[in-house]
Specification:
mainly beta
């Protein structure tokens, strides 16, 4: 799979894994290097070829297409280099203004996108919001979505939110880390959430300063000013383990060097009870 190809797929997988889904089998974006298919570019206001700068500019409802993948924008810039044996190699594609990246089953929208093929990165920025929508999942951020292939990491920044059915995870930043499984396939093994973390399920709302999700166990470990709400009751502590598979939550106090351990606090309202 091409470096740029993995970008959109990585963001989609990030959503699915955060929400406790099974393996995500989706059509991936394949627009970077590693493909022999030609790139077709068209635009209402014409295409400009700047040969000295080695760049193509397409303006006015511009569309770049390779295979089943399309990039729509008001302006497209395709930077290329000439190969020694002849032909050209696109090393960067910029899209600006009403950007839509479409592949089978996935659509990403924003105001600006940059594929850096040499550095194996994809960055999608938005005006008010960047959005990636698949058949089952939606991930949004107010700053940007990015994928770093060499670091094997996908990141959503700025009021990041991942939604699937009745499960939702929010944070200032969401990051997913990849590795290869025993069969050699790439999979997410760890997800980290930073700043104003909130997890919503059918029964609970959990809040913390930071969260780490272990994909294999299904457990999200929360730290920093942890609060769990369920059926009108409230539990507070320094850390917690929330199992997104079973719905069971465990809350812990703080280890303090002086004065012993700070106790976990629970507020049970009259007429309410803790649910399993």
């Amino acid at each position: 799979m091409a470096p740029a190809a993995k970008g959109l797929l990585a963001a989609a997988v990030l959503t699915a894994v955060l929400l406790g889904a099974g393996p995500l089998l989706a059509q991936s974006l394949n627009f970077g290097s590693g493909s022999d298919e030609p790139i077709e570019i068209n635009a209402e206001q014409g295409i400009e070829w700047q040969q000295e700068k080695l760049v193509f500019l397409a303006r006015g409802k511009a569309v770049a297409k390779r295979g089943e993948v399309r990039v729509h924008a008001d302006l497209l810039r395709a930077y290329y280099r000439e190969k020694k044996g002849g032909g050209t190699d696109i090393w960067r594609l910029d899209a600006k203004g009403k950007v839509r990246i479409i592949s089978p089953g996935e659509i990403a929208t924003g105001e600006e996108a940059v594929y850096d093929v040499d550095n194996s990165t994809l960055v999608l920025k938005g005006g008010r919001q960047v959005r990636l929508k698949t058949r089952q999942d939606t991930i949004t951020a107010t700053s940007q979505l990015e994928y770093w292939e060499k670091k094997q990491m996908a990141v959503a920044r700025g009021n990041a939110e991942a939604i699937r059915e009745d499960k939702k995870i929010k944070a200032d930043v969401l990051a997913a880390y990849f590795h290869k499984d025993k069969s050699g396939k790439t999979e997410i093994h760890r997800v980290e959430a930073f700043g104003n973390v909130r997890i919503d399920t059918a029964k609970d709302q959990a809040y913390a300063e930071r969260g780490v999700y272990n994909v294999q166990s299904g457990i999200a470990t929360l730290t920093g000013s942890v609060k769990i709400l369920r059926a009108g009751n409230e539990l507070t502590g320094c850390s917690a383990e929330v199992n997104l598979n079973t719905g069971i939550s465990r809350l812990f106090g703080c280890n303090q060097s002086a004065g012993g351990q700070k106790r976990v606090r629970g507020l049970i309202k009259p007429g309410q009870k803790l649910q399993k």
